[in-house]
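Customer escalation, tier 2.

The customer says the design service returned an amino acid string that "doesn't look like it belongs to this structure." They asked us to rerun it and document both sides in this ticket. The original structure tokens are below, unchanged.
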């Protein structure tokens, strides 16, 4: 009885990958969308910061809620400034990816390609960490609500 033949191992290593036409088009499209996302994130980050400052100035001298409006305005300002900074940092990673991948595809530059992928890794790492933090905060809020509801 003859054993089935296993395919031979690949002849090239991981470091000898080539970008074919389909991968080239996909990377070009991804870099374009990354630039769009980066610009929109930058605008949103600036708007968040502006909204935070506006919230603080609107809360000063307004005590209709029965709480210290200045404290509420300060808290809102801090939250919106943090959100704005996160969006601006995210936009920097997204724009870095788009610009470096575009440059790499135009000039066939391996260093720019690797730097573009590193920027994509940073973008995804930032959002993964933020999602984990939001998930933990959500779980803590649910636990807090469950313990106070008893």
């Amino acid at each position: 009885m003859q054993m089935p033949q296993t395919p031979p191992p690949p002849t090239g290593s991981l470091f000898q990958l080539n970008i074919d036409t389909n991968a080239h088009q996909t990377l070009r499209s991804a870099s374009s969308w990354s630039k769009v996302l980066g610009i929109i994130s930058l605008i949103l980050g600036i708007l968040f910061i502006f909204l935070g400052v506006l919230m603080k100035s609107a809360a000063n001298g307004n005590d209709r809620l029965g709480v210290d409006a200045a404290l509420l305005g300060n808290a809102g300002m801090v939250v919106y400034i943090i959100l704005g900074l996160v969006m601006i940092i995210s936009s920097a990673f997204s724009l870095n990816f788009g610009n470096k991948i575009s440059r790499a595809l135009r000039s066939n530059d391996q260093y720019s390609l690797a730097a573009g992928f590193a920027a994509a890794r940073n973008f995804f790492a930032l959002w993964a960490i933020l999602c984990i933090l939001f998930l933990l905060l959500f779980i803590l809020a649910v636990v807090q609500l469950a313990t106070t509801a008893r």
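Tier 2 assessment: The sequence is consistent with the input. Residues 62 and 116 are 48 Å apart (CA to CA). DSSP finds three helices and no strands in the chain. Sent an explanation to the customer and offered a walkthrough call.
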